[in-house]
Amino acid sequence: MKRLFIIAGIVVFFLGGILLSKDLIIKSIATKSASKAIGAPVDIDNFSLNIFSSTVDISGLKIYNPSGYPEGILVSCPKIKIIYDFGSFLKRKPHLLLVEVELKEMILTTNKEGKLSVDSLKIAQEPEGPPPAPVKIDLFNLSIGRIITKDYTTDNPPKVRVHNINRQKSYKGIPTARQLIFLVLTEPMKAAAIENAAIYGATLATGFTVLPIVVATKFIGKDHVQNVVDLNFKDLYKISLEVMKNKGQITKEDPSGGAIKATIEGARVALALRQISDDKTEITISARRFMFPQVEIAAGILYQIVDKL
């Protein structure tokens, strides 16, 4: 019996060592791969892969500033949870059922040349080479804490601003891990109304436009997007006008007809509202620049309108 306990203890010890080594090996591979893809150091405090429950738990993920910026953290995510389909990996068609990211803090630095730290990341540059491998992601929940901006363009020490976002967003149908990273990096910036970042262009260059689940946008034409919003006609018009005024120059206002026209990012934008019921309104937005469809601009405006509801 004593020998049996000794053997059992040895087996448990070795199994524990294998499981621990498994997590350490995957953690090392994950941090190296992420660092290479993003173009800045990535570190993880703890990584746990549970094969039996098909879950991954990551704690203390940090993305650091790229080369050429002061040492420090760019993004801090205390918790990340992933639920995956085990069989999909055996078929080499990775399928993630759920990804949850808690983004506690993002610290954006603007250098003396006026360039944002996030724009100096490798992932923010124009995509090159073969397209990224697909990784189907059904649902992505992002919890955004706050953004801190440090501006070194005029002052030393820098101007520091804090934007408390404290907002949760959900997205569905994300086709690649690259798009997931773009969302983690850009959605907090949009929520803090940080404009003209080069990484926005890199996101659009992938050809995939993602909006929060609550938007449920229909792309009804090459230059049109449409959605039904749970808000009355009058209040939706007011919010829409406010967003479009902040984005560009209004050229037409028609409160009774629910129409707004504006010039935004060099494009002619037209918004139309249609009352469906007392608390439901259909919103349609189109955008064209030099007669060419600009559905990304239209979708971006709709995104910001719904984001204010």
Give the overall pLDDT as a whole number.
82
Rg, rounded, reads 23 Å
Could you give the order of the helices and strands?
HEEEEHEEEHHEHEEEEEH
What distance lies between the first and last C-alpha atoms, to the nearest angstrom?
68 Å
Globally, the shape reads globular
pLDDT < 50 runs, ≥5 residues: 1-20
- The share of residues in helices is 25-40%
What does this structure look like?
This protein has helices spanning 2-38, 86-90, 177-191, 198-205, 233-247, 295-307; strands at residues 42-43, 46-50, 55-64, 73-84, 95-110, 134-151, 159-176, 224-229, 249-254, 259-264, 267-277, 280-289, 292-293. By secondary structure, the chain is of the alpha+beta class. The protein folds into 2 domains: 35-205, no CATH class; 224-307, START domain (Alpha-D-Glucose-1,6-Bisphosphate, Chain A, domain 4, 2-Layer Sandwich), CATH 3.30.530. Strands 1, 2, 3, 4, 5, 6 and 7 form a 7-stranded mixed beta sheet that branches. Strand 12 and strand 13 (292-293) form a beta hairpin. Helix 5 (233-247) packs across helix 6 (295-307). The longest helix has 37 residues, at 2-38.
Give me the secondary-structure topology.
Blueprint: H1 2-38, E1 42-43, E2 46-50, E3 55-64, E4 73-84, H2 86-90, E5 95-110, E6 134-151, E7 159-176, H3 177-191, H4 198-205, E8 224-229, H5 233-247, E9 249-254, E10 259-264, E11 267-277, E12 280-289, E13 292-293, H6 295-307
Parallel strand pairs: 5-6
Antiparallel strand pairs: 1-3, 2-3, 3-4, 4-5, 6-7, 8-12, 9-10, 10-11, 11-12, 12-13
Helix pairs in contact: 5-6
